[in-house]
Design brief:
about 300 residues; alpha/beta; five-stranded mixed sheet; 7 helices; 17 strands; about 30% strand; elongated
């Protein structure tokens, strides 16, 4: 194993057992760390070592000798940061196995000029993250409800998928009020009442199949229009709510997580946009996020 002179942003021990934490009697300046660690053996799963003296912390990467033993000699040491660039953070709410949680702790509590954040978190487990730089993913949705379901699902995925780099989920929302304002009317037809939407007009709901059409404006997507054609044989004035179409028309930069009711199951991915069904499950949202952050590649069907 050859250790890197400097790690890349978001580097961490994964799994966190790869970090060994040792308390020492001297301030862990780089020269001391090299001498101290070069003369030691380490557990066979140890890749990184944090040395702590009172409030002073240093971080190093180590290379182990080839061996099947439980403890093996250190053959190379690369000091990544001394006390001037390393900070110990204690926050018992942090899951240190999760990169997003680590980055959040570093960003919330970190000092300027620090590169390595050693975090003591939940269950007193410890890990580090180097120069956190979360991957920003925009989640485009229609609200209410708040938080919208797709954003809530994405948050759940980020909290449990420990393979992911730090992720910054940013809501890109348009409200039913905004949509209605583009086509003023005394009567609106919405896809369903589940969102608890309130508008300053009469409202009907397509999923209840009103007995007869009205002079309403339908706030809905292509699937809603298909239902309306089937129910009533007509096409009303429409305000399209499709998040996928909104992003396609704007073609913004960045990574985008989108839902579309025209997709029945699975995930569509084109490099910076991942589309899941309107009723996506957590597995589909997880696959979409892993594609967006570069962990997985989309396997063609068949």
């Amino acid at each position: 194993m050859v250790v890197a002179e400097q790690p890349s942003p978001n580097a961490r021990a994964h799994p966190y057992r790869g970090l060994s934490v040792q308390h020492v009697d001297e301030i862990p300046h780089p020269d001391f760390m090299r001498e101290y660690l070069s003369a030691r053996e380490v557990y066979r799963r140890t890749d990184y070592i944090a040395l702590i003296h009172d409030e002073a912390v240093g971080l190093a990467a180590v290379a182990r000798a080839p061996s099947d033993g439980l403890f093996v000699p250190v053959v190379d040491v690369e000091v990544w940061s001394g006390p001037d660039r390393t900070q110990l953070i204690e926050d018992p709410t942090i899951d240190v196995g999760n990169a997003t949680a680590l980055a959040g702790a570093a960003i919330s509590h970190g000092r300027p000029g620090v590169s390595a954040f050693v975090v003591k978190g939940r269950f007193e487990h410890i890990n580090f993250i180097w120069e956190p730089d979360p991957v920003r993913v925009f989640v485009t949705e229609v609200t209410p409800p708040l938080p919208p379901k797709l954003l809530d699902q994405a948050r759940q995925v980020v909290e449990f998928d420990e393979d992911m780099p730090p992720v910054d989920l940013v809501l890109d929302a348009v409200t039913f009020d905004d949509l209605a304002a583009t086509a003023p009317s005394d009567s609106y037809l919405l896809p369903c009442r589940g969102a608890g939407t309130e508008l300053a007009a009469d409202m009907a709901y397509l999923d209840t199949r009103p007995p007869a059409p009205d002079e309403w404006v339908m706030i809905g997507c292509e699937r809603s229009m298909q239902f309306h054609r089937h129910f009533y044989g007509s096409e009303p004035t429409q305000v399209d709510i499709c998040p996928k179409r909104r992003v396609e028309e704007a073609r913004p930069d960045g990574r985008w997580l989108i839902k579309c009711c025209m997709l029945e199951r699975g995930v569509e991915f084109d490099g910076n946009r991942a589309v899941v069904p309107w009723g996506a499950n957590l597995d589909e949202v997880r696959q979409a996020l892993r594609l967006l952050v570069g962990l997985d590649a989309l396997v063609p069907a068949g």
